[in-house]
Amino acid sequence: MAARFPSHGLLQYLMDGKRNLSKKTLVKLSLALGFDKERTQYFENLVFFNQAKSLEEKGFFYDKLVRSGGKSTFKKLDSSQLQAFRRWYTIAIREMLNLEGFRGNAAWISGRFLPPVQTYESEEALALLLETGLIKKTANGYKAADPDITTEDEVKSFLVKNYHAQMIRLAAWAQDEVSVAERDVSSVTFAIKESELPVLKKQLQLMRKELRAFAAEPGTADRIVQVNMQMFPLTKAK
């Protein structure tokens, strides 16, 4: 690696989370990864946020992360567009536009789904996506109106809540119907201070946005995946 660490052991410790990154090591890593100034600053704040020990430190670096992400390409959905969350497969169909060899007819779309989706359901979903402006029709087929979309982190819409409930049920379905090689279902249970809950939520929200880096270029993907992150209390508050 171009970062030139003094030993492979140090790199392994860093990857395993057994050692913290110093400012000097951060600079080396950023150079090795070819980050520009803006990405280096975001990476630095993300590392320090994860390494922070106190609530105050985490809050400080979280604010810096939010500010450094001011040029986000995510388009926040308006109330009418939230209708796309009525059925779990509607958002999945929007992502299907990025599949290699995508064909914009309902029969082809339904045939690609792993959980069964009827042809008429795909037709209705396509019509809804067009109606709400989440996709548009071009001379070559369909195209997403905006490359990335998101809702507010604390959106309280019933439609979005219902969407997440559908995805939780699909995750349970996948445990029986999808091979272990193609799924990952895991969890962690731990004690936490009540005051740290808002910080934990913020970290999960950042993780969710970072996962979009794995999205393939339009027309090069061959699968659609769903990643669920769930956090909820198992005991009552004081």
What is this entry, summarized?
With 238 residues, the protein is mainly alpha-helical. Helices cover 46% and strands 6% of the residues.
Give a description of the structure.
The chain has two domains: 8-68, no CATH class; 74-214, no CATH class. It is globular and about 55 Å long. It is built from nine helices and four strands, in the order ααααβαααβββαα. The protein has 238 residues and is mainly alpha-helical. Strands 1-4 form a two-stranded parallel ribbon. The model has no long low-confidence stretch (mean pLDDT 80). It has helices at residues 8-15, 23-32, 37-51, 55-68, 88-96, 106-112, 119-131, 158-177, 197-210, and strands spanning 74-76, 135-138, 141-144, 148-150. Helix 2 (23-32) packs across helix 3 (37-51). The longest helix is centred in the last third of the chain and has 20 residues, at 158-177.
List the helices and strands and how they pair.
Elements: H1 8-15, H2 23-32, H3 37-51, H4 55-68, E1 74-76, H5 88-96, H6 106-112, H7 119-131, E2 135-138, E3 141-144, E4 148-150, H8 158-177, H9 197-210
Parallel strand pairs: 1-4
Antiparallel strand pairs: 2-3
Main features:
4 strands; mainly alpha; two-stranded parallel sheet; 9 helices; 2 domains; 6% strand; 238 residues; 46% helix; two-stranded antiparallel sheet
Counting helices, strands and paired strands, the structural category is mainly alpha
> How much helix, percentage-wise, in residues?
40-55%
Tell me about the biggest sheet? 2 strands, parallel
Query: How many extended strands?
Result: 4
Task: Based on Cα principal axes, name the global outline.
Answer: globular
Strand order of the largest sheet: 1-4
Low-pLDDT sequence parts: none
Rg to the nearest angstrom?
Answer: 21 Å
User: What's the order of the H and E elements?
Assistant: HHHHEHHHEEEHH
Q: What value does the average pLDDT take?
A: 80
Percent strand equals: 5-15%
Number of helices: 9
Please state the oligomeric state of the protein chains shown.
Answer: single chain
Number of domains: 2
Q: Kindly, what is the distance between the CA atoms of the first and last residues, rounded to a whole number of angstroms? A: 50 Å
